[in-house]
Amino acid sequence: MSGPWLDDDQQQTWRAWLDVYARLFARLSRELQADSGLSLQDYDVLVALTDEPDRSVRMRDLGVSLQWEKSRLSKHVTRMAARGLVARRECADDRRGAFVDITEAGLEAIRAAAPAHAALVKEVFFDGLDPEQVRELGAICAGVLERLSAE
């Protein structure tokens, strides 16, 4: 079938994907909050910072990696800084720029939250898949991400 419409299999798969995404996001968010007091967005910011060798990243680069708008990131980082999880630092080279640094409290929070969060991801997402399905899913996701990156 050509044209703009999805065929029946595509429609069913797309709706299933949307349902999986919504339910997975809700479950991960709910359990992460209950277990650690972190939101999934807090966790995403902290993971991005721990992925950096010096545990610091420019705000604009963090926004790009998380796919967040500037105002959303700024407000969220401000809330996290108020809780002591991150610190905002001005950029000496660029008066308009800033860095976000993870604090010791942020490191402790992510270290405490990560094991239960990873166990939940494994349980609800990966435990029903065999290794070949995991590789296939990884390849599918990589292909979609490649097409999205071509924008």
From TrEMBL:
Superkingdom per UniProt: Bacteria
GO terms assigned for molecular function: DNA-binding transcription factor activity
GO biological process annotation, one example: response to stress
Stretches assigned to coiled coil: none
SMART domains given in the database record: HTH_MARR
Domain HTH marR-type, chain residue ranges per copy: 1-146
Family matches, as InterPro entries: HTH_MarR-typ (IPR000835), MarR/SlyA-like (IPR039422), WH-like_DNA-bd_sf (IPR036388), WH_DNA-bd_sf (IPR036390)
Protein known as: MarR family transcriptional regulator
Taxonomy of the source species: Bacteria, Bacillati, Actinomycetota, Actinomycetes, Propionibacteriales
